[in-house]
Amino acid sequence: MSASPAHAYESLGTGRMVVIYQTPADPAAFEDHYFNVHVPLAMRLPGLRRYEVNASRVIGIAGNAPYRAAVLYFDDLAAMRTAFDTPVGRECAADRRILAPDDRVQIILFEAAPA
């Protein structure tokens, strides 16, 4: 028996973090650090339900396409705050600043509503 769409939605939680990276000065160094350091670190965040990252080029509707995008799923915003208030969460946040300066990344937090 397959899960209904609502059930599948509920299993992911409602807290979302969308991280949008602009093109880095050194794309090869970014890719190496992102996939070998940052993603493994983020995967250790307490309460993280799912981590998605674009597998192909990101398309910007207005023509200004970002370089890479990721979506992190938590039960809710409170669970996300709790995750980033741990040693792993603080390490992950500090590593993001090494990976991409604040002017090269946009982070959006929200709670998703059922479709």
Structure, explained:
This protein is of the alpha+beta class and 115 residues long. It is built from 4 helices and 4 strands; from the N terminus they run H-E-H-E-E-H-H-E. It has a 4-stranded antiparallel beta sheet with strand order 2-3-1-4, covered by helices on one side. Helix 2 (27-42) runs antiparallel to helix 4 (87-99). The longest helix is centred in the first third of the chain and has 16 residues, at 27-42. The radius of gyration is 15 Å and the shape is globular. The two termini are 22 Å apart.
Characteristics of this structure?
single chain; 115 residues; alpha+beta; four-stranded antiparallel β-sheet; disordered N terminus; 4 helices
Named at the architecture level, the CATH assignment is 2-Layer Sandwich
Structural class: alpha+beta
Measure the end-to-end span. 22 Å
Shape: globular
User: Which residues sit in consecutive blocks of at least 5 with pLDDT less than 50?
Assistant: 1-9
| Chain-averaged pLDDT | 87
Helicity range = 25-40%
Q: Biggest sheet: strands, sense, closure?
A: 4 strands, antiparallel
Give the C-level CATH assignment.
Answer: Alpha Beta
H and E string: HEHEEHHE
Strand order of the largest sheet: 2-3-1-4
Radius of gyration: 15 Å
DSSP strand tally:
4
What fraction of the residues are assigned to beta strands by DSSP?
15-25%
Query: How many domain modules?
Result: 1
Return the CATH topology: Alpha-Beta Plaits
How many individual helices?
A: 4
